[in-house]
Amino acid sequence: KKYGLTTKVNFFPAGQMARDVSKIVGQAASGVPPEWDLAVVTDAHHATLWLKKLHQTFDYASLGVDSRAIDYDKGTITIASQIVLPAYNTKVLPPADVLKRWEDLLDPKWKGGKLGVPDSTHHLARLATGAWGEKKTLEFVKALAMQQPMLGPLGTLTSRLQLGEILIAVTLHDGFINRAKKAGAPLEFAKDIEPVISPALQVGLLKGARHPNAGYLFAAFLMTPEAQVIWEKYTGQGSAFVPGTSAYNFFKGRKVLYMTQDQATVVDRLAREYGRILGFGN
Q: Could you list the residue range(s) of the whole structural domain that residue 95 is in?
């Protein structure tokens, strides 16, 4: 309606982002066109596609997209800026115990399965790209492993947090917090902690896409205020680069870590290293 077109858009929910990206890479290696025109995955997953040169680039700024939201050599747009912080159950954790700093996670009182660490170790790897640097972050991750945390996927740890089986999720993103709140679960971020980690949910047109022009236009549309309202309605997340969204408002006055394309390979390397240290294996 916005552009006076009759284009039909088909939506395919991601089963598992890493698996879907591997499928795209495998199809490209075999000379098979991708099943989808656009891929909406995190910036960490888009890094794989970027390194494999599997994006079709476009001057999205010419369609009104904020240049700060455009990444990977004009191959992707940040349509949602996730909020990642430690989280807790307000009915289980006393107010006096709510964390004020990332380093508070290393307090001995949290040792022995009271913390939950998700397999999204790229969250912690992003701390190394900011003021902390690699040395401090490595020491932090090693000390965190000594706390003997529970390990698991984000969804599993969210359930454990709701049930009181863990007291703190070391990192959780706002998608899980929002869904839990809608279901009546009293989960909350430790909002005093800085920096806030902000992985990006990005859209990018895939190399060999069957409908490139429609794909470019739809990708840009997702950054319009009206599209962001719809996206937030169903996901609870919005882009930090569109005024009025929840992310835009939350990040005001806060120190935020965004990953740039130049940091992608470092974050990937450190995420693997931290995963081994924490006990996730290879």
A: 84-197+269-278
